[in-house]
Design goal:
By secondary structure, the protein is an alpha/beta fold. It has four domains: about 5-240, Dna Ligase, domain 1 (2-Layer Sandwich), CATH 3.30.1490.20; about 250-335, D-amino Acid Aminotransferase, Chain A, domain 1 (2-Layer Sandwich); about 375-510, Glucose Oxidase, domain 1 (3-Layer(bba) Sandwich); about 540-575 and about 605-625 and about 675-880, Phosphoenolpyruvate-binding domains (TIM Barrel, Alpha-Beta Barrel), CATH 3.20.20.60. It contains 35 helices and 33 strands. The chain has an eight-stranded mixed beta sheet. An eight-stranded parallel β-barrel has the order 26-27-28-29-30-31-32-33, surrounded by six helices. β23 and β24 form a beta hairpin. The structure holds phosphoenolpyruvate and magnesium ion. This is Pyruvate, phosphate dikinase.
């Protein structure tokens, strides 16, 4: 087994084996760029180490021979007392996990070789001792778990004794004393001396990097980013080059385009006389790359040349880490760089214009999540509002409101028409009402999977969590020396995680303006336009919308919807009409029921006329009424109290008592599993018939006006073919009677949202013109999770525990619920090869799920109007 690869042996496509860093170092080496010599120990060696607790037997020998080769390339021996080779030992997994794992620099230094290093550096003792103390510190922390604070405290103490404000002011003697102090700290914590043997240092550092794969923060990060837990990290052993050898040395980062906006150009920061971690630690201020041009023209020119070469080679934005050692440029890392959503779209479109990539590839470089981000309103930061503090952007959006500290206060102020931001240390299920009432939520604790984050995302509420500098007391919070009291206004940005004091103006999304058809002149909109066009050209899946009103349907159509996949007719029975439905459900006598139905018919007809008109020439799926009964009946508790009070007072309460009896009769413990959907239609005579008549009449009326209505009648909650057959028979009669001679064609189909329907789809297909997966209920009944309760109650915990990486109500559970979908699709089509099949649950607008529906071979997805562009984009990507 080959566990070690020289940089000259690998290439960029070996990421899984060599990690991203190792693969790209190898690629740069192959391109002939100035990369320090080195080798990579594979992720396979790491996996073996983690599985057994010790490195595979062959590893030591392979490392020895690669080290020997490295030594001969460099003309130095590791840790040689008179002229030492030093190496860095760096982690590098297949997926970038910034700052999650470990690195040890300057391996090979010890009490003897520190003098050799000073000699190499032209007698620079200060530099040599500074390097040695860094090794003891990093090795101590990383390899032996010595608390990092002990080292930084000692450094602070040394600076204080010296009256120094900056570590550059410590001289060689100070740093030598500090190194002794560090070694003492090391020995105290580990019970043994700092290891002097260079080969031992190397082996221990490498094993520590292996182990850092399972460090707590790395495990958490992977869970959040949905990176598999069993990949392991590679380890790169690289000859050290030094950016801290004086003013002609330094270290920096650079981007081939602006990762924030995507603008073409050269961006980066440089820090003179410093080593890598100094840049990240922000110890001194960096300067822009233009200044490097002044400082070291030759290195600058070479860097620019290399950047152009790398961009051309990777055909994408690259980010780069480099070091200049005494006027000589070294490339320490490159990768295809992370970028904002706007930059992703702009760069992809630019690269097409430049001829670097084609449209297919450009489409694969953006995604629906990025598009969704661009569709949120944003803060207008032109006034440069001061950032009060920042946390984790947990649920996107821009919210402005008065600070409140309790759910009760949030509800109270919101009811009075105020915009509020609920500020909590962390939230729990009792805060739910307050979270609903608030415009945004800010918490001091918790990450992307905390209760606050999960619930806010579920509700589409803006949320910043884990703003850990915020100290909350009962009616105020303090941060960075400022106090914010209840009622003060703050603004929170759920994308960047920033919190501002006072109101920040909110700007609508230009991408939404563009989808709305407004003229917008921007490079971002041009890029979005180009990529959306291409997605539409590529996609096989049609995209429809879920809409219950003409206005929603019209907007969705502007956003590109090709029909309505779900109109929830129960939404048409809220408000004034609720009473009519209540009368209908509770009607004792036929006469009462008939009267209620007759009153509802014209109202429903008008609803459908509006809808068919807005979607003229496109299919409109109208689902027959599916109300969980409890949403339409008066509350049992309240009614019982009213009756009791009236009785007590001796008032007449016959009518209320009768109603109470009826409600009691209909009361259900589990309404979502109760008298809903097709069951209601079969129990209440005339209800579905009224709706079907209204649909058919509306269609006939519009056909009479010369329009082209395309109604599809959908039966909800079917579990057995017999249910559908009975409804179908009744529908067909009415449809026939109303539309004959109008030229309108009406389809009758069913939702597949009860597991039994999925498992008997072959039978059900006999009675259906189409299927539409109701993945909300299919998930609810497939998992046995109450869709209305679980997100706030325990999903946050499930996510924390990693039982699933994302709520199955948000993204389709491929193995379980997805399997039901496959079975139903295959068995339905086996009976009726041209059966039209779509999906209308929330998953229809979820990027990951859209790819799954494409793979399964559905005909369309249907989602809320704002998700329509996201679904179009992802359907296009899925087809490539
Ligand atoms: C579903 O269950 O997925 C569905 C679309 O129906 P509803 O959400 O209205 O229950
Ligand atoms: Mg449903």
């Amino acid at each position: 087994e080959k566990y070690v690869y020289d940089f000259s042996e690998g290439h960029k496509d070996l990421k899984e084996l060599l990690g991203g860093k190792g693969a790209n170092l190898a690629e740069m080496t192959r391109l002939g760029l100035p990369v320090p010599a080195g080798f990579t120990v594979t992720t396979e060696a790491c996996r073996a180490y983690l599985a057994t607790g010790s490195a595979p037997d062959e590893l030591a020998g392979q490392i020895d021979s690669h080290l020997a080769a490295l030594e001969s390339t460099m003309g130095r021996h590791l840790g040689d007392p008179s002229d030492p080779l030093l190496v860095s030992v760096r982690s590098g997994a297949a997926f970038s996990m910034p700052g999650m794992m470990e690195t040890v620099l300057n391996v090979g230094l010890n009490d003897a070789s520190v003098a050799g290093l000073a000699a190499q550096a032209g007698g620079d003792e200060r530099f040599a001792w500074d390097s040695y103390r860094r090794l003891v510190q990093m090795f101590g922390k990383t390899v032996c778990d010595v608390p990092g604070d002990d080292f930084s405290d000692a450094l602070e103490e040394a600076k204080k004794t010296r009256g120094a404000t900056n570590d550059l002011q410590l001289d060689a003697a100070d740093l030598r004393a500090l190194t002794e102090r560090y070694k003492h700290i090391f020995a105290k914590h580990t019970g043994h001396e700092f290891p002097q043997e260079p080969q031992l240092q190397l082996r221990l550092a490498m094993e520590a990097v292996f182990r850092s794969w399972n460090a707590e923060r790395a495990v958490l990060y992977r869970r959040q980013e949905r990176i598999p837990a069993d990949l392991g990290t590679a380890v790169n052993v690289v000859a050290m080059v030094f950016g801290n050898l004086g003013p002609d040395s330094g270290t920096g980062v650079a981007f081939t385009r602006d990762p924030a906006t995507g603008a073409q150009g050269i961006y980066g920061d440089y820090l003179q006389n410093a080593q890598g971690e100094d840049v990240v630690a922000g110890i001194r201020n960096t300067v822009g790359l233009e200044e490097l041009k002044e400082l070291d023209h030759r290195s600058y020119d070479q860097l620019i040349e290399i950047m152009a070469l790398l961009e051309g080679h990777y055909r994408d934005l690259c980010d780069i880490e480099f070091t200049i050692e005494r006027g000589k440029l070294w490339m320490l890392q490159t990768r295809v760089g992370k970028r904002t959503a706007a930059a992703a779209f702009r760069i992809a479109a630019q690269l097409v214009t430049e001829g670097a990539i084609d449209l297919d590839e450009a489409l694969l470089r953006v995604n629906g999540a990025q598009l969704a981000q661009l569709m949120f309103p944003r803060f207008d930061l032109a006034g440069e509002p001061a950032v009060l503090t920042s946390g984790i952007g947990a649920s996107p959006g821009a919210a402005v409101g008065k600070v409140v500290f309790s759910a009760a206060r949030a509800t109270e102020l919101a009811a009075a028409g105020e915009d509020v931001i609920l500020v909590r240390r962390e939230t729990n299920p009792e805060d739910l009402a307050g979270m609903i009432a608030a415009k945004g939520i800010l918490t001091a604790r918790g990450g992307k999977t905390s209760h606050a984050a999960v619930v806010a995302r579920g509700m589409g509420r803006t949320c910043v969590c884990g703003a850990d500098a915020v100290e909350i007391s009962r009616d105020r919070f303090t941060v960075a020396g400022r106090t914010v009291a209840e009622g003060d206004v703050i603004s929170i940005d759920g994308t960047s995680g920033r919190v501002y004091l006072g109101p920040v103006p909110v700007r609508p999304s230009e991408v939404v303006q563009y989808f709305e058809g407004e003229p917008v002149d921007s490079t971002l909109v041009e890029a979005v336009h180009t990529l959306m066009d291409h997605a539409d050209e590529r996609r096989r899946l049609a995209v429809r919308t879920n809409a219950d009103t003409g206005a929603d349907a019209a907007r969705a159509r502007r956003f590109g919807a090709e029909g309505i996949g779900l109109c929830r007719t129960e939404h048409m029975f809220l408000g004034d009409r609720k009473e009519l439905v209540e009368r209908l459900i509770l009607a004792g006598a036929d006469g009462d029921r008939k009267a209620a139905l007759e009153a509802l018919l014209p109202l429903q007809r008008a609803d459908f006329v509006e809808l068919f008109r807005a979607m003229d020439g496109r299919p409109v799926t109208v689902r027959l009424i599916d109300p969980p009964l409890h949403e339409f009946l008066p509350s049992l508790e309240e009614l019982a109290v009213t009756v009791a009070v009236a009785r007590e007072r001796g008032e007449d309460h016959a009518e209320e008592a009768q109603l109470l009896d009826a409600v009691r009769r209909m009361h259900e413990q589990n309404p979502m599993l109760g008298l809903r959907g097709v069951r209601l239609g079969l129990v209440i005579p005339g209800l579905f018939a009224m709706q079907v008549r209204a649909i058919a009449q509306a269609a006939a009326q519009l056909a009479g006006e010369g329009l082209d209505p395309q109604p599809e009648i959908m039966v909800p909650l079917v579990g057995a073919v017999q249910e559908l057959e009975m409804v179908r028979q009744e529908c067909e009669h009415i449809v026939e009677e109303v539309i004959s001679g109008t030229g309108v064609r009406v389809l009758i189909g069913t939702m597949i949202e009860v597991p039994r329907a999925a498992l008997t789809a072959g039978q059900i297909a006999e009675a259906a013109d189409f299927f539409s997966f109701g993945t909300n209920d299919l998930t609810q009944m497939g998992w046995g999770f109450s869709r209305d309760d679980v997100e706030g109650a325990f999903f946050w915990r499930y996510l924390e525990l990693g039982i699933f990486g994302i709520s199955p109500f948000e993204s389709i559970d491929r193995e379980g619920v997805g399997r039901l979908i496959r079975i139903a699709t295959d068995e339905g089509r086996a009976v009726k090869p041209d059966l039209k099949i779509g999906v209308c649950g929330e998953h229809g607008g979820d990027p990951e799920s859209v790819h799954f529906f494409h793979d399964v071979g559905l005909d369309y997805v249907s989602c809320s109007p704002f998700r329509v562009p996201v679904a179009r984009l992802e359907a296009g990507r899925a087809a490539i």
